[in-house]
Design brief:
Number of domains: 2
Number of strands: 14
Oligomer: single chain
Order of helices and strands: EEEEEHEEEHEHEEHEEEHHH
Distance between the termini: 32 Å
Strand order of the largest sheet: 6-7-8-9-12-13-14-11-10
Structural class: alpha+beta
Strand content: 25-35%
Length: about 270
């Protein structure tokens, strides 16, 4: 972990330092070397949070976009179960930065544990993930132009989408190198709408960060993301009922509807 408690305050690891775990209060040892990023660890191989994973520079780069007071927050359930959230904002959104592969059972457990959860997934972990995703982008039709939303007809052909598209949490894929501009693009994966389709949309990295720092993400979800999900679901239902494409299918009138909505909520544009 990045922080331990020293005299009740968050502290980063320094060579020879000792701190205490924010969950179990046991002693932590500072690990400062040249291979892994500096971090705190329990003695031996023990870890009181089964969901914790070794961090990379990518994790740290993301965490550093947010105030220290939001980073590595202990989240408790009514059952007494505790886990450390990578970032938890003032409005209660938990941001989990996921680099390693996550078993579906654990992913579902985390989705249930955190009521307001956003996954940011490292798209550069496997060499083929970015190639597969770029292929999906080229082959997927844009069903809405503003904001651009692509309908992926065969998500199982992209391993990242296959692993993530069947959930209800919000997910963003990050394919950018750490040193690239904050104006780089994330790819937002809409919560599951269809069993055999996925819907994705580009999202400015800096806009995502600013909306959380300015406590505006709830408004984005309420005024933009949820209405889009409703329209996509309506369009899917129309297709399943054999309603023809064209002016009678509301999903293809969505540009007009969203133009009206965005004229009232322009500050929430993706």
């Amino acid at each position: 972990m990045k922080y331990a408690l020293i005299n009740g305050e968050k502290a980063v690891s320094t060579k020879g330092a000792k701190g205490f775990c924010p969950i179990c209060s046991s002693e932590l040892i500072a690990k400062c070397g040249e291979v892994n990023v500096n971090h705190w660890a329990h003695k031996g191989n023990r870890n009181c949070d089964s969901w914790w994973e070794n961090e990379t520079d990518w994790h740290r780069s993301w965490k550093d976009n947010f105030p220290i007071i939001w980073q590595e927050i202990v989240h408790s359930a009514e059952s007494g179960e505790k886990h450390i959230a990578d970032v938890k904002t003032e409005t209660g959104w938990v941001l989990e930065f996921q680099h390693s592969y996550l078993k579906p059972t654990e992913r579902r457990s985390r989705n249930a544990f955190y009521s307001k959860l956003v996954w940011i997934v490292d798209g550069n972990r496997r060499p083929t993930d970015k190639i597969q995703f770029e292929k999906v982008i080229k082959e997927s039709p844009a069903i809405i132009n503003n904001p651009p939303i692509l309908r992926v007809l065969f998500p199982e052909e992209c391993r990242l989408l296959k692993e993530w598209y069947d959930g209800n949490a919000l997910v963003l894929f990050d394919f950018q190198e750490m040193k690239e501009s904050n104006q780089s693009i994330l790819w937002f994966l809409f919560p599951k709408i269809a069993a055999t389709e996925a819907y994705i949309s580009p999202f400015l990295r800096q806009k995502f960060i600013e909306m959380h720092r300015e406590n505006k993400f709830d408004e984005l979800v309420r005024n933009t993301i949820l209405p889009i999900c409703k329209e996509l679901s309506t369009g899917l239902q129309n297709r399943s009922n054999n309603i023809g494409y064209g002016s009678q299918n509301r999903i293809f009138n969505f540009d007009r509807d969203m133009a009206i909505m965005r004229s009232k909520q322009r500050r929430f544009r993706f």
